Amino acid sequence: MGRYALTGASAATQEISGNANYAQGRWSDGSLTSSSGDYPLGGATSNSYHYVVFNTLASMPINGSLTCDAGKFTKPTYAGGGTAANFVGTSTGTAAVTVDGNGANVSLGITTTGNGSTATANLQGTVKTVDSTYFAGTVGGLGTGGMVTIGDAGNGAIFVVASYGVAMGNSNVFRGVATFTCR
Q: Which of 48, 53, 95, 117 gives 68 a disulfide partner, CB atoms 3.0 to 4.6 angstroms apart?
């Protein structure tokens, strides 16, 4: 995928989902190879690389409210914080979208369970253009937050795509990706 590749004799991909308009999954074993180096995956900490690729929308949808499905999720993985015995969790969520003159107003609720705790990331913001993103909360650190954008799901539908992190009550942070289809 672009400048990223999964390499190694033990390469493995989990939670694969997709169609002609997107692909999502989690590289869980092998090595992530990028222009900045190679990073081992799997092992004692279940280190993973979550990915989602999708088609860009040609234009913003017409104003109104869209109904979203229950979403597709990679299993979130431990990113740091406290001490973890279980490095892979689960996530579920909801998405709501209204489109107006400002763009696609997106509200996400992603509930994650990992290492014995459960917490929810509430990510709200506006994707102002078909090729923009909004950031909510802590992105890339050890807190709750995410990066949200939209894509072309085909047949007049859109994807809401989120890369998120959830800080748990036990100081652990779990990260994953989610894709919702909205019509």
A: 95
